[in-house]
């Protein structure tokens, strides 16, 4: 038997084993369309909901790893195929490709299950820090949410008064400063780790001196590493009523800058260009800036939340 024929047989065997495992997992999953599912969901305790969320997240990870392994094996055997192979072997490759796509599609069922349990958990405990707020088991920042943003957010920046100036060194912006219960900045390194660990969206909440509140929400928030100057690499789509002031900071590096006078309050860090593009949205300035809503701001917050993009409404579908 030729080597290519043996490779086809080996990959098909591995594929069938992987699909069998996935099939058994799918059979064990509760039906999302079951009439009793809503009753089951409401009857679960917080601890049980947390276990379900963790369980489905593990299944998502496992199915993705299986899909990656299939793709790797498919590519390896594809390189060994030549036009002397029989039609049956090409048909085998076609089936492998189809099975890979089906496996990727099936993993979406796990994500849907995870989201249903996660949403119910956050409905009960809106400020609960879930596993997806963490990197390597370590929780960053504090969790929060409100009636407009919904639950499940991690606060990465907050200014509620002027007791802490944000005219800090780059090192402080790198690692974070302040008190998480009051004014603080979580740190660029932590933001990088969180937004590169999995896709996140960004929610910015602004409050004026008159008590009016507005928000800006971005579907895909991501920054690059220290070696790339913590550049703002993605924002996704904007929705909100505060205006898209942050859009001018896209692809800009994070810099400590000064207006050039001797007032230390004019020095702060933000994502800006060489011509100071992006300063118009600097929430770390004194006072905080958001030029698409030019009012005096007394309270600002930046929050991020992990996303399941494929399950969101059309306006939030994106590639992050």
UniProtKB/TrEMBL annotation:
<feature type="domain" description="Fibrinogen C-terminal">
    <location>
        <begin position="104"/>
        <end position="308"/>
    </location>
</feature>
<dbReference type="InterPro" id="IPR014716">
    <property type="entry name" value="Fibrinogen_a/b/g_C_1"/>
</dbReference>
<keyword id="KW-0175">Coiled coil</keyword>
<dbReference type="InterPro" id="IPR036056">
    <property type="entry name" value="Fibrinogen-like_C"/>
</dbReference>
<protein>
    <submittedName>
        <fullName>Fibrinogen-like protein 1</fullName>
    </submittedName>
</protein>
<dbReference type="InterPro" id="IPR050373">
    <property type="entry name" value="Fibrinogen_C-term_domain"/>
</dbReference>
<feature type="coiled-coil region">
    <location>
        <begin position="46"/>
        <end position="113"/>
    </location>
</feature>
<dbReference type="GO" id="GO:0005615">
    <property type="term" value="C:extracellular space"/>
</dbReference>
<dbReference type="InterPro" id="IPR002181">
    <property type="entry name" value="Fibrinogen_a/b/g_C_dom"/>
</dbReference>
<dbReference type="Pfam" id="PF00147">
    <property type="entry name" value="Fibrinogen_C"/>
</dbReference>
């Amino acid at each position: 038997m030729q080597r290519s024929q043996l490779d086809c047989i080996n990959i098909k065997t591995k594929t069938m084993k992987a699909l069998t495992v996935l099939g058994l997992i799918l059979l064990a999953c509760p039906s999302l369309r079951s009439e009793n599912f809503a009753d089951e969901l409401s009857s679960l305790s917080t601890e049980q909901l947390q276990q379900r969320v963790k369980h489905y997240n593990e299944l998502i990870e496992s199915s993705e790893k299986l899909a990656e392994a299939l793709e790797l094996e498919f590519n390896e055997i594809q390189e060994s195929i030549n036009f002397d192979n029989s039609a049956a072997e090409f048909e085998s490759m076609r089936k492998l490709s189809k099975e890979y796509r089906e496996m990727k599609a099936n993993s979406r069922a796990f994500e849907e299950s995870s989201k249903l349990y996660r949403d119910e958990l956050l409905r009960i405990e809106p400020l609960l820090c879930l596993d997806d707020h963490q990197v390597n088991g370590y929780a960053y920042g504090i969790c929060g949410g409100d009636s407009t943003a919904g639950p499940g957010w991690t606060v990465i920046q907050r200014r509620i008064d002027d007791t802490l100036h944000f005219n800090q060194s780059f090192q402080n912006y790198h690692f974070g400063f302040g008190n998480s219960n009051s004014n603080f900045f979580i740190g660029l390194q932590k933001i990088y780790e969180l937004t590169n660990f999995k896709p996140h969206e960004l929610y910015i909440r602004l409050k004026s001196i008159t008590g009016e509140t507005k928000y800006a929400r971005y579907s895909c928030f991501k920054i690059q590493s220290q070696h790339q100057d913590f550049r703002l690499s993605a924002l996704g789509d904007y929705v909100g009523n505060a205006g898209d002031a942050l859009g001018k900071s896209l692809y800009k590096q994070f810099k400590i800058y000064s207006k050039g006078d001797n007032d230390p309050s004019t020095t702060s860090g933000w994502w800006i260009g060489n011509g100071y593009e992006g300063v118009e949205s600097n929430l770390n300035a004194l006072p905080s800036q958001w030029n698409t809503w030019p009012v005096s701001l007394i309270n600002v917050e930046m929050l991020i939340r992990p996303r399941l993009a494929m399950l969101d409404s059309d306006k939030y579908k994106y590639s992050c």
